[in-house]
Amino acid sequence: MDASTFDQASPRTATNPIFNDNRFKLGLFCHNASIMQMSTAPEKYVPTWENARALAGLCDRYGLEAIVSFAGWRGPMNDNPKHRAHREYETFTWCSAISAISTYPAVIATFHTQFTTPAFVAKATATIDHISGGRAGLNVVAGSSKTAFNQFGLGIEDHVTRYDHTEEFIDVMKRFWSSEKEFDHDGKFHKVVQGLSWPKPLQMPNPPLVNAGISDRGRAFACRHADIAFTHMRGSEDDWRTMIAGYKTTAEKEHKRQMQVWTHGYVVVGDTEKEASDYLRYYAEQHADKPWIDTWVAEIGEDAKTLRPEQMINMSRNWAAGGGYGLVGTPDMILDKIDRLSRAGLDGLMMTALEPLEMVDRFGSKVIPLMEQAGLRKPYRRQA
Ligand SMILES: Cc1cc2nc3c(=O)[nH]c(=O)nc-3n(C[C@H](O)[C@H](O)[C@H](O)COP(=O)(O)O)c2cc1C
Prior knowledge:
This protein has 384 residues and is an alpha/beta fold. It has helices spanning 3-6, 12-15, 49-62, 91-101, 118-132, 146-151, 159-178, 216-225, 237-255, 273-286, 290-300, 302-305, 309-321, 331-343, 356-373; strands at residues 10-11, 25-29, 66-68, 106-112, 136-141, 183-186, 191-195, 203-204, 209-211, 228-230, 260-269, 325-329, 348-352. The strands form 3 sheets. The chain has an 8-stranded parallel barrel, surrounded by 8 helices.
């Protein structure tokens, strides 16, 4: 690579598929870790490098737009050090390797702003951006897990402070990305003397930012900074529509920017409805990992305390299934669900599955062609 290539930048819309013109985009979530399906079923995904490599290959084969990693640092299961909840690769290292072996998807590293510095994340992301040819992204997490903070000898900050910290982090990181001169910063959370970072990211104006926050403060942060709000679908289809329009209108009116809204969901594609629901019952009811679910629900906290008993039962079932929105059924049934999400204004979905290698392949070969026929996605031709 000569110096001109090292310094070359281009519009991110040209290299990063999350900006392609598919009406409904698709990605994979959490495959550096073993967190989503809280099930004891022996088939459950193990986040080995071989499995991650195969999943990256499926993204290239079917033209999935994104791979998003999960940052938890360890699972919530105290006094059970070998529990599968703890299995997790570090996200920047993992994304760097994924970006080298894949050709199409955006590769998105999740990180907590409190556990690192703007200087590190700016440079690590620029590195991944160069390795991937302009496909890097960041999922910015303000943090909510005490066990994760404990790994770093830190007490969890209160909610307002977490987001103030995150705002300042993003501002300083963007200066590392954009400033061609040395700069100083003397803020509440970060101090930088003669800050400078080369190379700059390839993607202009900067690699896309995703934010997974659901509080009012989290939403305000996402509208100001994120290219994708990564959130949960709650309530009725009208509630989805209002929530999604709320993000997009605030971003446009208050910050003069466009943003997408994505969610995550678990996928079970069956040849019949019965086959799909039997499989879901097998792993999420008969093999629900109850101690894991109870610990997780207690950790994610305050929210759960306000729920009625039947809502609590649904929430526990949902975490055993994989968390988020359920795409369970025949290919036609799944198409109908995606169509409803899309009509509510949703731009994309990150998939998880108990056995993602089999399920993503099934989704790619059976559901994606239906999405293409329905105009939700354009036919994808694998790059050479
Ligand atoms: C779709 C989604 C993905 C998330 N991914 C992570 C993650 O990888 N690591 C993490 O510590 N927290 C993750 N979170 C938690 C959020 O970062 C955040 O702490 C939580 O949603 C609370 O946000 P709030 O404080 O704005 O309500 C995720 C949340 C959502 C909704």
